Amino acid sequence: MSSLRRAHFILITLSMLASLLLIGSASAAERPNVLLILVDDLKPALGCYGDPIAQTPNIDALAARGMRFERAYCNQAVCAPSRFTLMLGAHSTSTGLYGLGSQLREIVPDAVTLPQYFAQHGGYRTESLGKVFHIGHGNHGDPASFSVPHFHDKVIEYLDPASTQGGKLTREEAYFTNQHLDRIKSLPRGAAFEAPDVDDIKYADGRVAAETVKRLKAAQARCMQDGTPFFIVAGFARPHLPFSAPKKYWDLYDPSELPLPQFEELPANAPKVAGKRGGEITNYSPVPTDRNARFSEGLKRQLIHGYYASTSFVDAQIGKVLNELNRLGLAENTIVVLWGDHGFHLGDLGIWTKHTNYEQANRIPILIAAPGVTQPGSATQQLAESVDLFPTLAELAGLPAPKVPQPLDGVSLVPVLKNPRSRVRDHAYHAYPKQKLGRAIRTERYRLVEWKPYRNSNAPAEYELYDYQTDPLETRNLAREQPAMVESLKQILTGYPEPLPRNAKPVKKKTAP
């Protein structure tokens, strides 16, 4: 080959390579951005879900832009495991990550999390702010999941010295800062609520919102400069206890109009293992420390008031983020998801907070606004799980169907986003570990919970069955009265792999959809 022809060949080759590189960068530049909003302890006590009391105009506005999932459920009703299910797309029974102190990289060292998948397969810059992975109770989050260091802030926070006996380290502050974990009960209890007259920025959620606004501005600049798409996860702490929120959000509500629990006994004929009294709520003052103490009506109203005020506070912070997304012109190319990590008992069944397999602890809000896919103001009765968001977001972003080292238990909800009447699963699955492991199947009408010992799979199981058409308050376990329905729902459970013990290495095996 002559030197002239060789030079011509090299030029053509370089030109082709350049074209391929441009095509690749254009593909990345054309991918939608992702804004994932996580809210701690948020049940569907929201205006867009029909709650007549809730003052949540910003979350309602997001729902008006996209799809509301009416029957969405977490996969375990406690912070750390619930966030693992979201980020891994895997049930806790598939990974063994059941506890607040479970260490992701010790148990599933090769896992590829949702943001990691977007970085690896879509060229996304991934960032996290606020409460994303659970940090506390011996857990330190997962720095490997994100492109840049995590923006961390408080979960347990007080401004009034009276709330902490003059500035002392409280039990829950110690838990969430990994201090004195061996002597928690020797520390004082913090207040269950406070309402100082302060600006939003004085609390962590205000600071997380302000930093997220800054990150969106920087992300827009990068998008314009080199086409890098962003995957930003913003996590908000309220309405997790303590109900610390500026006074103006408390002032939105008349305590006398707040809904009190309608039924405050445990379900009749339910197994003892299924019930709950005391727990997390007793770490806060002035809640009685006796697990079986009855709360006064005044205390119930204060706690419920605090929950709604905290929800309105976090709604305002989410509004600041969404307003900036709109102002920057990013909304038209950004998938926005709002997800609550689990529900919250507000005295129903006599239970407070979470940590059960009952409806109020497991039903969550999921809102998805995907430009060009979701119809504004749409809603669906499709049952959905937290694990479904991993494959759903991957498909929406045009990424390959996820193939990851950990089990992938979720199914894509994209067909439902396109058509609310489409169906991709006929039940939701969740679990909660206590003295026994409780695994649950939730259909549109029923919930079956199976309680079995961890180590003896042949031991007799105890069952709960609830019919939400005839008994929405879960007043009575129907398992003995409807054995045929129990057997039918048990067959669904047999389609799932044998649950892993706590903190065991997972078996790479798919579950039933």
Automatic annotation (TrEMBL):
Tagged with keyword Calcium: yes
Molecular function per GO: choline-sulfatase activity; iduronate-2-sulfatase activity; metal ion binding
Sorted UniProt keywords: Calcium, Hydrolase, Metal-binding, Signal
Gene3D superfamilies in UniProt: Alkaline Phosphatase, subunit A
Keyword Signal: yes
A family per Pfam: Sulfatase
GO CC term (a single one): cytoplasm
Alphabetical list of InterPro entries matching this protein: Alkaline_phosphatase_core_sf, IDS, Sulfatase_N
Domain Sulfatase N-terminal: 32-398
Swiss-Prot/TrEMBL cofactor(s): Ca(2+)
Signal sequence region: 1-28
Record-listed E.C. numbers: 3.1.6.6
Family (UniProt): Belongs to the sulfatase family.
Name the UniProt record assigns to this protein: Choline-sulfatase
